[in-house]
Amino acid sequence: MGETQPADDGQREPKSTAPRGTRFWLVFVSLCFASFVASLDITAITTALPTITRELNGEENYVWIANSYTLASAVVQPLIGQVSNIIGRRNPMIAMVCLFALGSGLCGGATSTAMMIAGRTVQGLGAGGILLLLDVIVGDLVPLRQRAQYVGIALSTCALGTSLGPLIGGVLVEHASWRWVFYINLPFSALALVSLVLCLNVQHHREATWRHALARVDWIGNAIFIVAICAIMYALVIGGTIYPWSSYHVLVPLVLGAVGWALFHVFEASPYCLEPTMPPRLFRNRTSMGAYVLAFLGAMLMQWVVYFLAFFFQSVMGQSTTMSGVSVIPFTGFLIPSAIAGGIIISKTGFYRPLHWAGFAIISICMGLFSTWSIRTSRAEWVTLQCLVGLGNGLLLTSILPAIQGALPEADNATATSAYAFLRSFGFVWGVAIPAVIFNGQVDRFLGKVHNAALRDKLARGGAYSLVGTPLLKNLGPDEGAVQSVYTDSLRTVWQVGMAFGLLGFVLVGVQKHIELRTTLETEFGLEETSGQKDGSAEEGSHTSAEAPTSVPTPKPQ
Fold first, then answer.
1. Which residues pair with 239 in a beta bridge?
2. Domain tally for the chain?
3. Within this chain, do residues 502 and 369 fall inside the same structural domain, yes or no?
């Protein structure tokens, strides 16, 4: 695929942006449905995990059952983005749904922890590809100025799945079997697969042979990248759970992963890499680079809020896993409409920086107020603040990707979006790792409040983090008040550090510059033409590449 936009000969007219037709909406709904299925399982596992590990005798490997999915989904996204540039979007998307369904079946039928971890890994590969290609294909079908509102709807289905996951997982575990947390994905995946096969007919320039197509893949770069990121994420997973953060088991892979990641970017910029997975030009202007950092911070803070809100309700409020899932619904309730509203605002005004400032400001304020919460916090207060933090996260959810894509040529849609998707996935991991480290450290600091030595030992060195949701915390007798105080005081610091990251994001918004968002669609991956279109009666709203794509001005590097 071309890496730069074609030169404008001054004679072609921009393509129209007419209302979208039936084929567009069939494709779009299919994509939304696939993304909902993929995202639902990301958090459903959290409520089912204790039961799964107990029945499979996998207590020693529970961290891998929980995190193999996230690791696999993150590391594969840049490779899938490049492959979709070479062989088109349709076949990779269908393959990813099939992988997700296969992984779900393996997990549902797992008879050992090894089988469960393998299934979760396959699931993650499929889910990572689905969520990436969702953004890429929407970018192929909708002009940049209008793109955010469609991405808002699509990402809202992801957010809905992620937020409903703990509730659905808890209900299935309590009233059916943990296996249905995975089996329920199979009929949904089948429906998504049928709709994609029938509707997702998009164009691409086919290579003469598969050999030519495979030769274009950045195999060396992707190998370096995958190994490096796996090392970093391995360290993040085992740190504070299996080994202390100061252990060489954690520090060695963390350092080697960081060195490998740097080596990857050196290779991408070298003349030996003919078609980079992450071209250096993605990061050479201040607007796209700033937006990438904001994407990481926004994802990290979103996971921080989602995970530790449920953690607060279970540990301090003493709620069950199912009820904690219900209690975070106000967050979801405002996340979805505000994400759509943010997209509409961008499509109407073309401005994205005010939404970034507003989003990080609201998140910072709310996390600061979360630090005042205790068992005495009223329902009205925690519902209201969840609505507000959902609003802040929603505004960021749809407004960051347009800033990245607006600062780069349309030809970089897949590569730019895959880098964005990876950084978001990477941010989700840090959004659990950082607050968990802070929480465990603070628990050890406040354990003097607990007089029972045996109980103190169980809560120390990460024990308090892993004991949430277990029967032990429900039968503490005279130590209940002291333990509750330890959790409350420790969470206070967690929220305060989260507020600091939110303020950092607020400051970094100023790095970006305003760029006019394109109002015409210039892509070689649009909907395929029907016979009627070839005769000149084009379907309303479809954008194809039958004619040479019209050039649009390439944004100047910032």
1. 243
2. 3
3. yes
Provide the β-strand partners of residue 527.
Answer: 202
296/284 Cα distance (integer angstroms): 17
pLDDT tens per residue across all 558 residues of the chain: 433 333 343 333 344 344 567 778 888 888 888 788 777 777 677 667 767 777 887 666 777 877 788 888 889 899 999 998 888 888 899 999 999 999 999 998 988 888 999 999 999 899 889 888 888 888 888 888 888 778 777 777 776 777 677 677 777 777 777 888 888 888 888 888 888 888 777 766 676 678 888 888 899 999 999 999 999 988 988 887 778 888 889 999 999 999 999 999 999 999 998 889 999 999 988 999 999 999 999 999 998 998 899 889 988 888 877 788 788 889 878 888 888 888 889 988 989 999 999 999 999 999 999 999 999 999 999 999 999 999 999 999 889 999 998 888 888 888 999 999 899 989 988 998 899 889 888 988 888 888 778 888 888 877 777 777 666 666 676 777 888 888 899 999 999 999 999 999 999 999 999 888 877 767 666 666 554 444 443 343 344 333 333 333 444 444
What does the angle CA 494 – CA 496 – CA 499 come to, to the nearest 5 degrees? 115
> Model-level pTM?
0.82
- Sign, CA dihedral 123-126-129-134, equals negative
CA-to-CA separations, 382 to 331, 388, 389, 465, in angstroms, rounded:
10, 10, 10, 22
Structural domain of 232: 218-274
Q: Based on the fold, state whether residues 269 and 290 are members of the same structural domain.
A: no
Q: How far apart are CA 2 and CA 256, in angstroms?
A: 34
Q: Phi and psi dihedrals of 488, rounded to 5?
A: -65, -45
Phi, psi (rounded to 5 degrees) for 53: -65, -35
Determine contact, residues 147/405, Cβ cutoff 8 Å.
yes
Structure tokens at 524: 């070689």
Helical pair 353-370 and 286-315, crossing angle rounded to 10 deg: 30
- Within a domain: residue 546? no
- End-of-domain residue from the set 181, 204, 227: 204
CA separation (Å) from 373 to 303, 328, 482, 489, 494? 19, 15, 16, 9, 12
Q: Decide if 213 is inside a domain.
A: no
Contact 22, 300 (CB under 8 A): no
- Secondary structure of residue 276 in the 3-state scheme: coil
Q: Which residues, 6 or more positions from 363, have their beta carbon under 8 angstroms from its beta carbon?
A: 301, 305, 389, 392, 393, 396, 502, 505
Task: Note whether 191 and 231 are same-domain residues.
Answer: no
In a shared domain, residues 424 and 506: yes
Q: Are 94 and 128 part of one and the same domain?
A: yes
Distance CA 439, CA 333 (A): 27
Structure-derived torsion over alpha carbons of residues 217, 222, 224, 228, reported in degrees to the nearest 10: 180
Largest CA distance in the chain: 83
> What are the C-alpha distances in Å from 489 to residues 275, 301, 392, 454?
51, 20, 25, 21
| CA Rg value for the chain | 24
